[in-house]
């Protein structure tokens, strides 16, 4: 039986709620802290690859997940200028057969709501909202976290351990692990969602489609069982209009015009979101500058004594491998396993967690950034990329090391590259 540890989780987004579910299942006393007054998770869609699904399944969430996700039939790459299909990776049966779990897409708010509901179902969970953790200190016996409440009153919470899950702009992880602050990538993401019923049949999709262009790309995929379509457009900041005041179709048309890549099908999808899109943060489009830190270099960046970080607070990454949420979910499961294997020795457990996660998340960070550079090629290099995708798909589009690996690995050999 696992010995219970009292753990404060700072941040109740997907990473924090995933950790609350995983640790609560083992009987740990969890205090979940959120600086906002409610638990609404921002953003549009995200992808749940098999490595993340296996973790969620091990927490008993398989049936609940199937009620809210979409199961795309394939991942498809297209040339943005011509619309020509370059490569296709079938998913429907391939993912289950090769990796023991499906490849899914989900509305971020749906996944967050599911995780939060299951966290609340744990018997020893306390939740606090409107509370900002501003400083953290530890000694040999525990962790003291300074908290400012909604009324500006300050008080200190004492726990056995603390997990930092505040996202990419985490200040506590930089403080506790002495790591560099995040920086701009020179890239901006536009995100929107639209009901597929509002689209003509030719624009509806049940695939994850990546349109690859010069200094930009777009990703389109279904949500909520195919009811909605998620669209992400990521562009180099040099293509943005001189004065950007709002995320709207005028901005996006200006981006496309500057890039000289204007395929009608993609433009029609973007126009449909501007006309019929579901509001995100009171707008049909959201615009996010992408930020990250250098790839993790050693385990000390993920844990220090009785304090550990997970998700974007630990290892922010660009979205070109669709692994941000998946890595946070893997982090949560590895924390559970490490605490189970090390008993009540929190310091040893967190060191074990960091040691096992550092290499994998660093590889994902580097590969995601590399993918972005490949996606945004132009000229002869883009022609070479397109030829490689056409000739070598689906092998060139698959990632056995990623999808078969993680803290709940796929049993058996799926490729020459071993899971890590």
Automatic annotation (TrEMBL):
InterPro entries: FAD-bd (IPR002938), FAD-dep_Monooxygenase_BioMet (IPR050493), FAD/NAD-bd_sf (IPR036188)
All residue ranges annotated as the FAD-binding domain in the record: 5-366
Keywords in alphabetical order: FAD, Flavoprotein, Monooxygenase, Oxidoreductase
The protein's required cofactors: FAD
Pfam families from the UniProt entry: FAD_binding_3
Gene Ontology molecular function terms on file: FAD binding; monooxygenase activity
Coiled coil: none
Gene3D superfamilies: FAD/NAD(P)-binding domain
PANTHER family in UniProt: GERANYLGERANYL DIPHOSPHATE REDUCTASE, MONOOXYGENASE
Descriptive protein name: FAD-binding domain-containing protein
């Amino acid at each position: 039986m696992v010995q219970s540890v009292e753990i404060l989780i700072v941040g109740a987004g997907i990473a924090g709620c995933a950790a609350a579910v995983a640790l609560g299942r083992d009987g740990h006393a969890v205090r979940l802290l959120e600086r906002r007054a409610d638990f609404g998770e921002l953003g549009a869609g995200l992808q749940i690859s098999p490595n993340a699904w296996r973790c969620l399944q091990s927490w008993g969430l398989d049936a609940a997940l199937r009620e809210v996700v979409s199961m795309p039939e394939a991942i498809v790459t297209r040339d943005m200028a011509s619309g020509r299909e370059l490569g296709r990776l079938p998913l429907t049966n391939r993912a289950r057969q090769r990796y023991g779990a499906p490849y899914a897409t989900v509305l971020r708010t749906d996944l967050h709501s599911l995780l939060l509901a299951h966290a609340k179902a744990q018997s020893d969970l306390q939740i606090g909202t409107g509370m900002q953790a501003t400083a953290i200190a530890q000694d040999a016996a525990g962790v003291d976290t300074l908290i400012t409440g909604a009324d500006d009153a300050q008080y200190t919470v004492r726990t056995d351990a603390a997990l930092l899950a505040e996202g990419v702009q985490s200040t506590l992880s930089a403080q506790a692990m002495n790591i560099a602050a995040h920086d701009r990538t020179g890239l901006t993401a536009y995100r929107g969602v639209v009901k597929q019923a509002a689209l003509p049949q030719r624009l509806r999709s049940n695939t994850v489609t990546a349109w690859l262009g010069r200094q930009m790309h777009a990703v389109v995929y279904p949500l909520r069982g195919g009811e909605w379509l998620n669209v992400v457009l990521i562009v180099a900041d040099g293509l943005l209009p001189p004065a950007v005041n709002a995320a709207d179709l005028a901005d996006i048309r200006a981006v496309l015009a500057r890039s000289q890549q204007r395929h009608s099908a993609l433009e029609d999808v973007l126009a449909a979101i501007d006309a019929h899109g579901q509001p995100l943060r009171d707008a049909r489009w959201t615009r996010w500058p992408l930020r990250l830190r250098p790839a993790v270099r050693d385990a000390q960046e993920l844990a220090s004594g009785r304090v550990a970080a997970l998700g974007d607070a630990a290892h922010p990454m660009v979205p070109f491998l669709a692994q941000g949420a998946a890595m946070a979910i893997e982090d949560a499961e590895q924390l559970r396993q490490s605490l189970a294997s090390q008993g009540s020795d929190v310091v040893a457990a967190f060191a074990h967690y960091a040691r096992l996660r550092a290499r994998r998340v660093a590889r994902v960070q580097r590969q995601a950034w590399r993918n972005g550079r490949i996606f945004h090629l132009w000229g002869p290099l883009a022609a070479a990329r397109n030829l490689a995708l056409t000739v070598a798909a689906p092998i060139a589009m698959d990632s056995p090391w990623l999808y078969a690996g993680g803290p709940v690995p796929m049993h058996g050999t799926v490729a020459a590259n071993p899971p890590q």
